[in-house]
Amino acid sequence: MAILLTGAAGFIGFHVAQVLLARGDEVIGLDNLNDYYDPALKRARLEQLQGRKGFKLYQADIADVDAVKEAAAGADVRRIVHLAAQAGVRYSLVNPFAYIRANVLGHTVMLELARHLPKCEHLVYASSSSVYGGNTKLPFSVEDRVDSPVSLYAATKKSDELLSHAYAHLFRFPQTGLRFFTVYGPWGRPDMALYIFTKAIFEGRPIQVFNHGDMQRDFTYIDDIVDGVIKTLDNPPGPDAQGRPYRLYNIGNNKPEPLLRLIEVLENAIGRKAEKEMLPMQPGDVRATYADIDAIKNDLGFEPKTPIDIGVPRFVEWYRQYHKV
Hints:
With 325 residues, the chain is of the alpha/beta class. The protein has one domain (2-184, 221-253, 292-305): 3-Layer(aba) Sandwich (Rossmann fold), CATH 3.40.50.720. It is 40% helix and 17% strand. The chain is built from 10 helices and 13 strands. Strand 1 (2-6), helix 1 and strand 2 (26-31) form a beta-alpha-beta unit. Helix 1 (11-22) runs parallel beside helix 2 (39-49), helix 1 crosses helix 7 and helix 4 runs parallel beside helix 5 (152-171). 46% of the residues are buried.
């Protein structure tokens, strides 16, 4: 039995692959190694995976139907962890077609692949906390309506959830969508705030603090995210009252942190003060995120364990080693 993992060179995908391989699973990785951020970081992650027993990588675009079919051909693929996507809220204002291709067309390709697999046990896919958009009720619950996206990225992720729901209804193969909340940690993405702040502080440049610092995020450490992904993967949903084997979960730390407190923890970990440039809210951004995790906690026993006071110093330690600073 093999697990097809899209986005294998990405931040979350890399960490998921490590855990799957460590427990003896066969992992077929799929990644197009695009240049949304420096591909050197993606290649460095892959260096940690390549050569390990059970791992094989296909460099391919998930929106390429034939390439995806080729990657799955000849392997007994029964589970799919679909994490590949065009990420980032602000970049969607610049290059919207990249989001439609990767997130909507690419997701449909993965659904079609799963639909035609002889023994598809479970498709787990990445959604995002951004789907909550303009919602003001906190914490965000999977029972909340999510009809007010404030970015194209959020709209594509909501589209993925709707597509998956339709496929679960029509073809009855098990699916779970995971709404990730602000993931951070070693090997993280350079376009995320923690990485951007850390780089600027080490280089002696000011950091840009949006909405004049009046922001909160449910920062979730990578190890906790991976624990949730694995628990989900190993527990496919049964049919609901309408016979659909489909569910959604939030995966967050269940503890929103003020942005200024994150910066303070980061300053302490680096040992330097940040020069702050206070700016207004950016288009497509939201003031606060906060995950209600009761559903995944009750169903699967998920329990985040890593506060920012532990996770941020771990990231800084990795940053120092990787960038040799």
